[in-house]
Structures are given as C-alpha cells and as structure tokens.
Amino acid sequence: MSKTFHALALVCAFAACRETDGGGDNPNDAGPDAVDGVGCTALAPRSVPLEAFVGPTGLQARISAVIDSAQTSLDVHMYLFTVKPLADRIVAAKQRGVTVRVILDPGSPGNAAVEPILMNGGVTFRQATTLYTFSHAKYLIVDRKTAVIMSNNFNVDAMSSERNYGVIDKDPEDVSDLIAIFEMDWAAAGGQPPKPANLDCTRLVVSPDNSKLRLLEHIASAKQSLDVELMYLSETNVRNAIGTAKMRGVNVRVILEDPTDSSVTYLTGLGIPVKFPPQSIYLHSKLIIADGIAFVGSENMSQTSLTKNREVGVLVTDGPAQQVIKTQFESDWTASSTQ
Asked: Domains in the chain, please, with CATH?
C-alpha cells in the first residue's frame, strides 16, 4: 500500500465525506481484481493493445457508443459534465438493467445541468470526496472489462471545439487498478471507510500517488524527440525537465494554448520552438510524447494536478495507438503558429 493512499484512507475514515446519491444501486457489486505482478511499471507491455482516439471530431458519438455498450455495469468519474444527451445515455443504461455509478466533482457548477437528469432517471451519483483539491479525473469503466481514460470532460466544448486525447484500455490489470481507484473514491464520496487502492504495481499514472514522478521520468527518458501539447505548463519541475531535454540534445517542440503562459519565456530562451493553436481549436490536451511514447490523461502540468488532485492517465506504448496520437500532433504543429 502506498503511503499516500494509506494517509488518505485514514483521513477519510475520520472525515465527514459528502454524498449526493440517487439511491438503489449496490456499490459493492464488484468481482475479484486481476492478479498483479506483471504491469508494475508505466512501460510494462499490455496483454491487450490500447486504442487511441482524438477529439473533438466524432467524440460524442464515440462516448455514446461506449455507454451504450454497457451490459452489466458502468462506472463514470467525470470532473465536468454538461452534455445532456450523454446523461440521457447513462439513464438509458440504468433503465435497461445496467448497474450505474457516477462520481462528479462538487466544485464544478456546470454539473448542475445533468444532475437532475441522473437523479430523475434513478442513477446513483455522488459528489467526490474533498480529500482531493479537485476530482479532476475523466474515465469510464464498462462491464469491469473496458476502461476509457481521457483528457476531455463531458462538456459541450469538448464535443465541438477542444483538442483532447483518450484511450480505450482492455488490459485486465489496468482495468483492475482503475476499478480499485473508483471503489476507493466511491466509498470516500459516500462517507464510508474506503479500501485504499494498492498502486504499488500499476501501469497507470495516478494523482496524487505517482503522477509527478512518472511524468518527470517520462520526460527524462527522451533521447531523440519530445513533443508537448498542453493546456498550460506551470509546474516548475516539469518545465525544467523539458528544458533539460533540450540542453542534452533532444529535439523539443511545444504547443501551448496561451501565448501568455508563464513558461513561454523560459522555453524560448533555451531555443525551444513554442507554437499556439488557431482560434478554431481550444487546446485542452495534456499530451507529452517522448520518443514516440505518449502520455495521455487528465493531468495538467501544475503542482495541484500532479500532487493534490485525483487524476488518471497512461503511457501509450502500442504502435497503432501511438500513430494516431503522433499524426494529430503533427497536424496541430503545422496548423499552429508562433504568433
């Protein structure tokens, strides 16, 4: 058990965690976890290759199809949820007999747009525990066999004008670890004693447990190329690691959403080319590609996101998935400008 999650479990055991519960579903409808011991590092090979996707094109249809595919269970952890048609799909899953649970972040007022839909549809949902500064993760678990891990929220702009990346993960150990994370946070959100998620052996990149260390290691691993596409870059160690990669001869390229980002002067001062996307796209991605291996997930490059939030991501090591991501980055690099 990691020290971080042991501490969180002790805190939650004595804290009054808040709950908004639509009622009726059994939060303990859980099968046994997959056996650990293989995927203990972020780069460990998977038994099932990841499938990558890019938003916004086709994103709502893809998410809808994933929700519609649920036959027995659907667990959703979403920071911001405003797209009512997706809420309707979740209600439809409940009505056809799927066990549905949803965790929402209490600090996102936009969630009020869908909470009545979920409640009236009998969907059990809870406001996330206040153990984290933000419950910023964005993922689904379908039938305890398939995980969808994304940088996008379920907000209207994500479906129409934001750049986001995601993966469909069917590796049993990855899914098992994500189930453990969800179960921990579901219990904490309900004021129940949580079973800490044991992430001593996991491929996942998870805040507040291991994100900062794994992302710094990921950046430090780059020998030839480092492509970065971020909403913002404020965490000093991450920024400096990118600079250090440039200084050791790595070809570094950075796309940021905002020309006034605090890291721009530092990066350009080292000779790193920095570009910004056209107005037609909002850069919500959290993408770091080191020698073809891509980080995809919910983590922003800030101290809070990496050490205080609940976040989930993965390193993409599978060739076809890497190509989808790399192709989109190259397209975005071409379309972006130095302003």
From this structure: 3-26+37-203 (3.30.870.10), 206-335 (3.30.870.10)
Checking if the pLDDT of 28 tops 90, the result is no
The better pLDDT of the pair 32, 273 is held by 273
- Give the pLDDT confidence of 236-256 residue by residue, as tens digits: 999 999 999 999 999 999 999
Beta-bridged to residue 148, according to DSSP, are 140, 168
Report the Cα 30 to chain-centroid distance in Å. 22
- Decide: pTM greater than 0.85: yes
